[in-house]
Amino acid sequence: MTFDWAAVIAALPDLLQGLQLTLLIALAGLAGGIVLGILAGVALTYGGRLTVLPAQLYVALIRGTPIVVQVMFVYFALPIMMDIRISGISAAIITLVVNSGAYNAEIIRGALDGVPFGLREAGLAMGLPFRTVLLHVITPIAFRRALPAMGNQFVNLVKDTSIFLVIGVGELTRRGQEIMAANFRAVEIWTAVAIIYLLVISLLALGLRVLERRVRLP
Amino acid sequence: MSMIEFQQTSKHFGANVVLHPLDLAIERGEVAVIVGPSGSGKSTMLRCINGLEKISGGDLRVDNISVLGSARDVRRIRLEAGMVFQQFNLFPNLTAMQNVMFGPIRARRQTRAEAREIATALLHKVGLSERMHHYPSQLSGGQQQRVAIARALAVQPKLMLFDEPTSALDPELRQEVLKVMQTLASEGMTMVVVTHEMGFAQRVGSRLLFMEAGRMVHDGKPVEMLSTPPGERFRDFLQHVN
Q1: Looking at beta carbons, which residues of chain B come within 8 Å of A144?
Q2: Among candidates B51, B46, B45, B52, which has minimal Cα distance to B65?
Q3: Per-state percent for chain B, helix, strand, coil, to nearest 5
Q4: Theoretical Cys-Cys bridge with B59: which of A53, B7, B133, B168, CB 3.0 to 4.6 Å?
Q5: Distance between first and last Cα of chain B
Q6: What is the domain extent for residue A49?
Q7: Contact of A143 with A111, CB cutoff 8 Å
Q8: Are A102 and A59 in contact (CB under 8 A)?
Q9: Are A103 and A40 in contact (CB under 8 A)?
Q10: B66 close to B60: Cβ distance less than 8 angstroms
Q11: How far apart are CA B37 and CA A95, in angstroms?
């Protein structure tokens, strides 16, 4: 067979549009997932029974079910249960936030737990309230400890957006599928799609590596 | 009014009694050195003073504020009582300078400029002017502990608590830390020092307390207690540490 470059070039505008949506969903999921992950992670680490239990339940529920099932639930089941309408993009973002939040929570709990107890005591012994100690003593250390695992989670998150083709969200993978269904150039289209993902994720990985190096302690 | 007043203060972890009801007053300007075998409750007693351990019975007042008071009261006590730990516990992500500036900025709400002035003076005082932009990992144990002392002093405490400040140090690094502590004592700082350094107790201490199995067994002048040790257990203890 010959590799038909023209097919790739013709598909590119559509694919890049898909990429835009992929990035939008990923960024929203990333930001929301970080916020939710911090809340749940802090609850898991320092909470009383009233906050630990719901947080544990949340993490168990998300880790115990496939993300495809989660998005199906949000897109098809939730609207029926709550009598609301929800767009595919919203369902995708909600799913991603809730999903990555659970994984982030576990990473953050581990990072917070790993901060030497003596540092916390040193902060408290200065007369600081615990929230100040958490923010200014524990967090800077925990952040560095969490970074490698969080980076890994971010990479997974970008790739997880491809799952949303199942609810018809026109992200990169879905676009690829649609173009291929019209022109049958499977080799060209899936190669192009794969390379676009690879480029985005390489860029993200590079950014994470630079960040890790910049905050590394002597 | 005493600086620290133990009033029938007791502490237990579950069924394990760590501190039997204790009555003890430590006055302003005193340098109280607490010694005793490990597990005798010295560190726990010290940590009760600034509320890092909650007392189980009785009362404990620091500058007439009870450790049983509100969270705010406990924070006021901690502002007045600087603490130095066996393991230094410096913030590893901050330089020596930033470690010392931390308390003035966060706990005393002073400006960065004020904090820098305080930190510069204190690092000079503990002999680390040359090292102020080094991170803890780039300092020796003795230097780290001197930074930790400066960090505690920067909050402008009325008394200082030392929890085995030289126990994690190699013998040749201990003297530089003890010297800083001696200077502090000579300036009239009220100090409670848990240590095994009998030499320091004799030179610097105004009072020597011997603890065993959660009880304060002896309480006297260091020179007298060390020249004529009261009680067999204290004599045994001295032989072990020397």
Answers
A1: 93
A2: B51
A3: 40, 25, 35
A4: B7
A5: 36
A6: 5-215
A7: yes
A8: yes
A9: no
A10: yes
A11: 58
- Residue B1's pLDDT is 85
In single-letter form, the type of residue at position A16 comes to L
Q: Which residues contact B239 (CB under 8 A, 6 or more apart)?
A: none
- Reported ipTM: 0.95
Restricting to B residues 91-110, those with a Cβ less than 8 Å away from any Cβ of A are 91-93, 102-103, 106-107
Question: Which residues does A122 contact at the CB level (< 8 Å), separation at least 6?
Answer: A137, B83, B85, B89, B90, B91, B148, B151
Residue pLDDT, tens place only, A59-76: 999 999 999 999 999 999
Burial class (CB in 10 A: 0-12, 13-18, 19+), B171: exposed
pLDDT grade for B59, boundaries at 50, 70 and 90: very high
Structural domain count, chain A: 1
* Amino acid in the structure at residue B20: H
A183 contacts: CB under 8 Å, gap ≥ 6: A7, A11, A189
pLDDT higher than threshold 90 for residue B78: yes
Per-position b or e across A182-209, b if 16+ CB within 10 A of its CB: eeebeebbeebbeebbeebeeebeeebe
- Which domains occur in chain B, in start order? 2-90+158-240 (3.40.50.300)
Cα A136 to Cα A133, A141, B57, B103, B120, distances in angstroms = 5, 9, 33, 11, 21
pLDDT tens digits, one per residue of B94-120: 999 999 999 999 999 999 999 999 999
Position A1 pLDDT exceeds 80: no
Judge whether residue A154 has pLDDT over 80.
yes
Query: CA-CA distance, B76 to B80, in Å (whole number)?
Result: 6
Give me the residue from A118, A144, A217 closest to B89, CB to CB.
Answer: A118
Task: State whether residue B186 is helix, strand or coil.
Answer: helix
Q: Cα Rg for chain A, rounded, in angstroms?
A: 21
CB pairs under 8 A between A and B: 63
Q: Does A125 touch chain B (CB under 8 A)?
A: yes
pTM, 2 dp: 0.91
Q: What is the CATH number of the domain that holds A176?
A: 1.10.3720.10
